[in-house]
Amino acid sequence: MRIHTVFSSSFVVTLITGSLALMACGDDTCSTACGSGGATTTSQGGGTTHTGGGTQTGGGGSGVGGSGGGTSTEWVVPTCATITGTAAVTFTSDEGATLTPSTGTLTGVGYTGLAALDTPNTLLAEHKGDLLESTDAGCTWTKVGSLEGGIFKLTAAKGGRAYAWADNGEAFYRIDDGVPTALTTPAANVVGIGVDPADGLHLRIGDASGALSDSIDGGVTWTKQGTPAADGGTIGYRFAFDPLDLDHVLFGQSTDGASVTFDGGDTWEPSSGVGAANANAFSIAVSPADSNLVWLEAIELGPDQRHIYRSTDGGLTFTSVVDQSADVTLINGNLLAPHPTNPDVLYFVFGTSFQGYGTDIYRYDQTTKMVTKTHNNHHDVSAIVTSPADPSVQYFGLVVENIN
Fold first, then answer.
1. In this structure, is residue 24 part of a structural domain?
2. How deeply is 278 buried, as exposed, middle or buried, from its count of CB atoms within 10 A (0-12, 13-18, 19+)?
3. CA distances from 257 to 118, 155, 191 (A)
4. Count of CB atoms situated within 10 Å of the CB of 318
5. How many angstroms separate the CA atoms of 161 and 267, rounded?
6. DSSP one-letter string for 52-101
7. DSSP letter string over 100-120?
8. Distance of CA 304 to CAs 16, 27, 151, Å?
C-alpha cells in the first residue's frame, strides 16, 4: 500500500561503538532485513549488548524557529508544517527521525539533487528533469526550468548561482537566478565539481579518467588543469574538492584507493591507510569546517569489508572509524554529509525500497566514537543540505515515494 503525502513519524535510534561484524548486503540493496525496531546499545571490547524496545513516536511536520514577514536579508529556518510545490524535498530538525510532509506525491523512481544558495532562503532542487526553486527557506517550491541528460547533482556557487552536473555523465548546466544554461565540458563522465569560494565563475571538474579541467568563465571554456590523478588503468569513482580551497582535491578509484593533491593537480600523493593493500574508494567528502578533515567510504579488497575512514591531514593518511556491521549498512557509495561547523561529525545514509525497508540516517561523532541512527519509511535520501541559518535543520533530497 502506498502512502503518498504522509511521512512516517515513528523512528528508531541506535547507538553503536567500536568495530562490529560483517553484514551481508549487496552494493545497492540489502539482501536481507537490514535491522529494525528497538533502540540498541553495543558496548566496545566484548561488553554486554543491551537491546530494548525503545521506539519513540513524534509528531508530524517540523516547525522550527521564526521567520517573520517581508523579504529577509539573511537565512531563516522554515516554519511551515507542510511543504507545497514538490514532494521531492523535505526538511527535518531531528536528524531524519521525522520528515516534514508535502502536499504533493512522488511516483516511479527519481533522485533529487539539492543546493542551498548564498541568496538568503533560496534553494534549488532537480528531480526527474524539473529544476525547482524555493525562495522561502524550503516551504514552497516552483518549477523554473528543465534539465536533460541524467541524474543531476547540484553544487552551489558564490553569487546566487549553482551548477548542475550529471553524475558520471556529460550533461552540465550553470544556473543563474534560477535560469539554467546548458554548457559543454571536455569530459563525458564527470565525477566531481569544485567551485572557488571567492569566485562563483571559477570552477573545476574531474572526470572518471582522473583528469581535471578548469574554467574561469562559469563553464563556457575549459583548460587542462594539472596532471591526471590516475594512469588510466583504474575506474574513477569520485573527485572531492575542498570547499575552502580549490587546489585541495581528492580522487577515489578502483583498486588503488585514493590520492590527494594540494597544488591543483600538479602533484598527487597516494593516500595511505585505506585498506591493508587494495581498496575501492567510492565516496569522499572534505569537511567545510576544517580542510584537514576528510571522510572516505571504501571497500577493502580481500576481506571485502566496507569501512568509513577519517583523515586529519587533508587526505594523506586515513584511519578506519566505522565498520560495516549488522547495525551499520555500508554499500558501494554511501552518501557522506559532513557537519558544516563540527568537523568531528559525519552523517551518512543507507536507504532502499527492497521489502519496503526505508532509510537509515547515521551520525558518527569522533569525540565519542559512536554512531547513532534514525529511521524513516522513505525509500532513500540522495542529498543532504544543512540550513545556513541553523545546522540542526537539514534538507533532504528524496527518492521515489513512501511505502506502508
1. yes
2. middle
3. 34, 25, 15
4. 26
5. 30
6. ----EE--SS---S---SS--SS------SSBBS-SSEEEESSTTSS---
7. --BSS---S---EEEEE-SST
8. 21, 11, 28
Angle, CA 156 vertex, CA 292 and CA 366 arms, to 5°:
30
**C-alpha radius of gyration, the chain, whole number:** 20
In a domain, 38, yes or no: yes
- Rounded distance between C-alpha atoms, residue 164 and residue 172, angstroms: 6
CB 330 within 8 A of CB 298: no
Q: Contacts by 320-324 with C-beta closer than 8 Å and gap 24+? A: 320/19, 320/273, 321/364, 321/366, 321/369, 322/348, 322/364, 322/371, 323/19, 323/20, 324/20, 324/22, 324/23, 324/25
Is 239 within a domain?
A: no
Domain count, the chain: 1
How is the chain split among helix, strand and coil, in percent rounded to 5? 0, 45, 55
Pairing label, strands 236-242, 223-225: unpaired
Query: What is the residue-level pLDDT of the chain in tens, covering all 404 positions?
Result: 333 333 333 333 343 433 333 333 333 333 333 333 333 333 333 333 333 333 333 333 333 333 333 456 799 999 999 999 999 999 999 999 999 999 988 888 899 999 999 999 999 999 999 999 999 999 999 999 999 999 999 999 999 999 999 999 999 999 999 999 999 999 989 999 999 999 999 999 999 999 999 999 999 999 999 999 987 778 999 999 999 999 999 999 999 999 999 999 999 999 999 988 899 999 999 999 999 999 999 999 999 999 999 999 999 999 999 999 999 999 999 999 999 999 999 999 999 988 889 999 999 999 999 999 999 988 899 999 999 999 999 999 999 755 54
Please tell me the distance from the alpha carbon of residue 11 to that of residue 375, in angstroms, as a whole number: 5
Q: Which three cell numbers stand for residue 293?
A: 578533515
Domain that holds residue 39: 1-62+78-105+344-379
Q: Could you tell me if 131 and 144 are in contact, meaning their C-beta atoms sit under 8 angstroms apart? A: yes
Residue 166 resides in a domain = no
